[in-house]
Write a structure and sequence with these properties.
single chain; 192 residues; mainly alpha; Four Helix Bundle (Hemerythrin (Met), subunit A); two-stranded antiparallel sheet; 8 helices; 2 strands; 4% strand; globular; phospholipid metabolism
Length: 192
């Protein structure tokens, strides 16, 4: 297994750690940052999420730089993103920080595109993430990070940045999903 794929797998392995930190119920106290107070567990959980999300850039960088792009990596990388984002969104619903209907739309799109990728793979075609899919992923990461951090940076300016970012993430999620299906609609006309 090459280095980029190991980095991708490390992203998947960080998900249980993130979940334990966010949902364990331990109280490690609170911290005040820029006048906003949040539980230390949320700060640590957010940092784990941000670190795990950053590995998405790192594995892609090394895959391209070292010419280690593989079909396994093309499949595993977006799957790792979907698992991490889905876990974080479900945690945010559990904490009352994200509306469930938006999370359902985002996760449904992730399942639908994964199903499309599986149909395409059956025909021998492996689809790597396109630019719109990458924008979607980063929009989701920004929104989730802001929500996990209780919007602390923008709280000073009374801007609901986290909520706005979540709406933007949903927009790009739906748009990129629609784009994947339109560009690969032939898979449905060829099936019986």
């Amino acid at each position: 297994m090459n280095l980029p794929n190991k980095i991708t797998i490390s992203r998947i392995c960080l998900i249980p750690l993130f979940l334990i930190i966010m949902l364990s119920g331990f109280s490690w106290g609170e911290v005040t940052i820029l006048g906003a107070t949040l539980p230390i567990t949320h700060l640590i959980g957010a940092l784990v999420f941000i670190f795990a999300s950053a590995t998405d850039w790192v594995d892609g960088y090394y895959a391209r730089k070292l010419n280690l792009v593989t079909n396994f990596g093309k499949f595993l990388d977006p799957l790792a993103d979907k698992l991490l984002v889905s876990a974080a969104l479900i945690v945010l619903v559990e904490l009352g920080s994200a509306p469930s209907w938006i999370v359902i739309i985002i996760i449904s799109r992730e399942f639908a595109v994964t199903g499309l990728r599986l149909l395409l793979a059956e025909g021998g075609e492996v689809v790597a993430a396109n630019m719109l899919g990458k924008i979607k992923t980063w929009a989701q990461i920004v929104a989730i990070s802001a929500l996990l951090l209780h919007n602390i940076i923008f709280e000073l300016f009374s801007i609901p940045f986290a909520d706005i970012a979540l709406w933007i993430a949903m927009f790009f999620t739906v748009w990129s999903g629609w784009d994947y299906f339109i560009k690969n609609k032939q898979v449905f006309s060829n099936s019986k």
